[in-house]
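Figure 3 (text version): structure tokens given as input.
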């Protein structure tokens, strides 16, 4: 892998050139109050390369919260037209755990029935990763992700060396193309120095189980009272699944004008923590109890995905722990409560 160096001011100048060229939307992390979000950049000076976590993960660019899939005139069978809106997009400053989550989403949307809407958006994207420079009290990603996995989707990786210097790992042809015309120099930095710079920020907590042990551990706890105990406190608000970078469930609805002149088939984010999620024919809800929904969500991360992909289905971003008003959603909290109850 080619390693380059660039000054922060030259990198921002290059991003500005990309913004002005206008052939690809430049999206980066920007402050929002005391938090951070991914948002479109009007100028590179808005870009923040020193943040703890974003409120929502970058999945919103590949699986939008609301997405029109089909447009039609209900009375005209020949009018049905697939919609697949996508635009060239560069995401700048994606932390490694979010890159791993994108890799998991890519597998979910490409294996079996390929989701053309999601995959088209991914094909139009350039992903520029960034090693974190700031800790986050709820993060435990070092214990959840394989450090090589972010490179499966990243096109470039940024390593902040100090306030003025960045190292650039060129991972793909798209990454190399993104840097054309940038004031980069060959790196003379040793691998030992880079390894230290990548791991400057340490998590304050670690999940005690990997994908090899986690499924058996949790399956054995299927009837554990922790699910009911934590479920009793749950508001079924769905925040934990909406902010989760590895949750991708959706609902599809037909929205038809009263006049029947036109209609749209639209998909929206949905989530297993919401009471109506499991309502099926005959108004039967097959996961009615809050505890059962809570267990299902945790099992998706700790049993189902590890068994399917041999990696954890949680990347340890800590967003659910931050978003949960009841302070129960974080996987670390589940383990802790379970241990306290034993
Ligand atoms: S379960 Fe929570 S900590 Fe894990 S990836 Fe989802 S939001 Fe992040
Ligand atoms: S964020 Fe908390 S309260 Fe809301 S659904 Fe998730 S676990 Fe329940």
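Below: residues designed for each position.
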């Amino acid at each position: 892998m080619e390693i380059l160096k660039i000054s922060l001011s030259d990198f921002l100048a290059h991003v500005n050139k990309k913004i002005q060229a206008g052939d690809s939307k430049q999206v980066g992390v920007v402050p929002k109050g005391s938090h951070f979000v991914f948002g479109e950049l009007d100028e590179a000076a808005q870009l923040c390369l020193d943040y703890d976590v974003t409120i929502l993960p970058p999945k919103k660019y590949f699986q939008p919260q609301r997405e029109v899939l089909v447009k039609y005139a209900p009375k005209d069978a020949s009018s049905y037209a697939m919609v697949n809106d996508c635009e060239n997009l560069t995401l700048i400053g994606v932390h490694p755990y979010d890159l791993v989550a994108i890799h998991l989403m890519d597998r979910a949307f490409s294996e079996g029935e390929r989701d053309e809407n999601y995959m088209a958006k991914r094909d139009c994207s350039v992903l520029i990763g960034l090693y974190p420079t700031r800790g986050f009290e709820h993060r435990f990603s070092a214990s959840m992700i394989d450090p090589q996995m972010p490179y499966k989707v990243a096109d470039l990786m940024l390593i902040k060396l100090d306030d003025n210097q960045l190292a650039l790992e060129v991972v793909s042809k798209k990454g190399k193309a993104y840097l054309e015309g940038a004031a980069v120099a060959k790196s003379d930095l040793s691998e030992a120095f880079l390894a230290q710079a990548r791991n400057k920020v340490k998590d304050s907590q670690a999940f005690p189980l990997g994908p090899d042990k986690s499924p058996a551990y949790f399956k054995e706890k299927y009837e554990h009272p922790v699910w009911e105990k934590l479920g009793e406190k749950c508001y079924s608000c769905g925040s934990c699944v909406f902010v989760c970078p590895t949750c991708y469930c959706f609902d599809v609805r037909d929205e038809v004008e009263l006049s029947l002149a036109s209609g749209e088939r639209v998909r929206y984010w949905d989530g297993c923590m919401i009471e109506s999620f499991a309502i099926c024919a005959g108004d039967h809800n097959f996961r009615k109890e809050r505890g059962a929904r809570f267990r299902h969500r945790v099992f998706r991360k700790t049993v189902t995905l590890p068994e399917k992909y041999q990696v954890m289905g949680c990347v340890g971003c800590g967003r659910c722990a931050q978003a949960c008003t009841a302070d129960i959603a974080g996987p670390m909290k589940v383990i802790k409560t379970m241990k306290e109850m034993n």
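Residues 243-246, 301, 314-320, 331 surround iron/sulfur cluster (ligand 1) (CB under 6 Å).
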